[in-house]
Design goal:
The protein is α+β, with helices and mostly antiparallel strands. Helices cover 32% and strands 36% of the residues. The chain has 2 domains: 6-91 and 249-260, Aminopeptidase (3-Layer(aba) Sandwich), CATH 3.40.630.30; 102-240, Aminopeptidase. It has 8 helices and 13 strands. Strands 1, 2, 3, 4, 5, 6, 7, 8, 9, 10, 11, 12 and 13 form a 13-stranded mixed beta sheet that branches. The two termini are 21 Å apart.
Length: 263
Amino acid sequence: MITGLRQRRRDGLPRLLDDGRTRARLRPWPHQSRIAQLILTDHTKAPTVATLLTWLAVARDHGFDSIRTGALSDSATPPFVELGFESIQRLALLRLELDRHNDDLDTELHGSSRAARHELRAVRGSRQIATLARIDRAAFVDGWDLDATGIVDACRATPQHRVRLAVTANDDPAGYMITGRNGAAGFIQRLAVHPDHEGRGVATSLLVDGLTWLHRRRVEDVLVNTNFDNERALDLYRRFGFESLDESLSVLALDRLAVGSSR
């Protein structure tokens, strides 16, 4: 047991790292078992360098060769940069202020719901989560997709969440979305559409559902991030009133974990 570090273990791997001030989840990067992923519970709150060194040592001791972070705000990156992490992805951050557009949004959502062309189903059980993972792998560039464990982690990232699977009239899984809520803050945690069903309103149906759920729970602001070059996603969110923020998010990586774990 490492002093000052509480670990919840599953199959020998600590699922939660906690120094009493900051927390992070440690898991293998999807489909790449030698790469660790370190996801801060609060992506805006930086660990100390000492804590980060401890966490890197835990990852190294569990056989990982390199490590990547989840999406981090600029305020959380300094200790990572100090230890040699480099940015491998920048993400645009967008916000929708629901509390400023309640009446207009009510009208827009109601009209869009009438036009929805996909059945949306609640997701329960490992078989359905596996279906979501197959959609995710088809929808995202290799290395940036979520496996079943990553999808479950995304659901647990907020105190409340809603997961919906969109299916076609032929019962084909077409896409899914995870919507999260933490008090008055809402989050589009993940939105994935299978390439075979792009351009057919799947994402619109899912986004209508998630925003309606948040709207009914008096959420004030909704945040979402996506790649800067994902024009399809950016156009979709802007159509619903999301606006780009000056702040962006970063995914950082340390390729030589053994070197980075000691000073």
